[in-house]
User: Which sequence fits this backbone?
DNA sequence: AAGTGGTCTAGACCACAGG
DNA sequence: CTGTGGTCTAGACCACTTC
């Protein structure tokens, strides 16, 4: 039969599986049929089936693991429209073009809100560093930054007194061999507090961009968290999303 | 010292090609050897070579076209570290969970800053709409939005007087068949202006999140631009990046 | 030990772009 | 027309997880 259209078979196959995930035939948390089963069911070669699987992985619908199988992560495909992805953000160039000067470091035991923010358990002792970021010869600093480092890595070297051009999470990766596999980021607008305003030589109560980044390892543990506060007239955040797959 | 297990051949091959692109052996704009040539040179099967090619495409280093070849787009790999990608942003759920109520529409001829923002030529007549966005039964609106629609699509239907649950760019896609392939986004912190503050029932001069989105078609033309202003205590922007390929 | 996905091979046919 | 990348097949071996 076929003749479903100009789409290659792996796309048709992927779309079929997406539909079946959406309609609950494969509930979230369950395992999809194995590659070989799918080969039989669809009469396709393993390469074609694998290409279809890649589509599902790319859309974040499933996780695959050798020896286990293909597990459904979420059934939320919303509309098939625009599922866009950022290709480039300033995360990359930011640190290279600016300098972070560490003002002080100390250890803290997070409690209350901070403990929640760091997903820390009670009694853990984190490393806390404060710093300001500058852009080249520009006189006014770009932002005030507070960094919290997971107790496991609080022996990190090379912070104090330096002008860092390398992101701190990268120092951790280098010194401890721990890989950051996910970065979560939250952005909001806040009024500049008196202390930070003074440090940055900016007007108190003026609008500022508040950015909190969590750096997670493979197990989802917070390796590091950084909170940056940027006076509104000194920084803007830009990113770009591209349509990653065709509308089917 | 981080120990890395042996990499699969397609990764080694990709890394080799990346190095050669970086060092100028394959200048920007030139064609890489064909798949079959690479098969010979590296003694690998075509599947392996193609898998390596996918890595280069994924990193945005090359463009491929059947009948032409593999052309080098850029040699800029920056650091091999974290090239992270957002997997999910509120771009997706935002419109579905909130309602945009259009307050008014009119046509404008952008000049000065606005003309630059829209990348418009002089004399073009764009459609301008103002609206406020609400979240469910919540009393206070989330943001004030001004939308600019490219002259080619200013005949768009279904804006006025509706409570939109569909992004406007999607309406354009549906009504005109024009595909949005890229979304550019800029975020900054601003002080809330008097007029918007009054419309949103928020304190004037308080901190607000300013988000400007450009929706581009395949030729890079601005189909639509939207500027949203969110009082600081009513909205925050969250996104997540995952490491897309292994460090080599 | 059995089964999974990850990698790899050596073929094949196709649509498309170029001379 | 020739050659390109895009798709597809039917095998194979491996590392890993699970039992």
Assistant:
């Amino acid at each position: 039969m076929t003749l479903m259209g100009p789409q290659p078979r792996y796309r048709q196959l992927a779309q079929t599986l997406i539909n079946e995930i959406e309609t609950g035939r494969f509930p979230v948390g369950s395992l999809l049929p194995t590659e070989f089963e799918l080969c039989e069911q669809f009469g396709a070669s393993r390469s074609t089936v694998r290409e279809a699987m890649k589509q599902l992985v790319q859309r974040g619908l499933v996780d695959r693991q050798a020896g286990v199988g293909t597990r459904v992560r979420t059934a939320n495909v919303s509309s098939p429209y625009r599922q866009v992805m950022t290709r480039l953000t300033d995360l990359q160039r930011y640190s290279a073009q600016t300098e972070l000067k560490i003002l002080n470091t100390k250890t803290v035991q997070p409690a209350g809100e901070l403990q929640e923010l760091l997903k820390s358990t009670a009694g853990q002792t984190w490393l806390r560093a404060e710093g300001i970021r500058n852009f080249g010869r520009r006189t006014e600093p770009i932002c005030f930054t507070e960094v919290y480092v997971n107790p496991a890595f609080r022996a990190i070297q090379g912070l104090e007194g330096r002008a860092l051009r390398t992101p701190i999470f990268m120092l951790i990766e280098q010194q401890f061999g721990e890989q950051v596999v996910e970065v979560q980021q939250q952005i909001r607008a806040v009024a500049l507090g008196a202390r930070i305003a003074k440090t940055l030589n900016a007007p108190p109560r003026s609008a500022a961009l508040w950015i909190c980044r969590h750096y997670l390892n493979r197990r989802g543990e917070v390796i590091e968290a950084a909170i940056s506060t940027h006076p509104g007239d000194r920084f803007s955040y830009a990113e770009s999303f591209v349509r990653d797959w065709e509308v089917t």
Summary: Chain A touches chain B through 52 residues (CB under 8 Å). Residues 8-10, 44-48, 51, 65-68 of chain A lie near DNA strand D (CB under 10 Å from a C1').
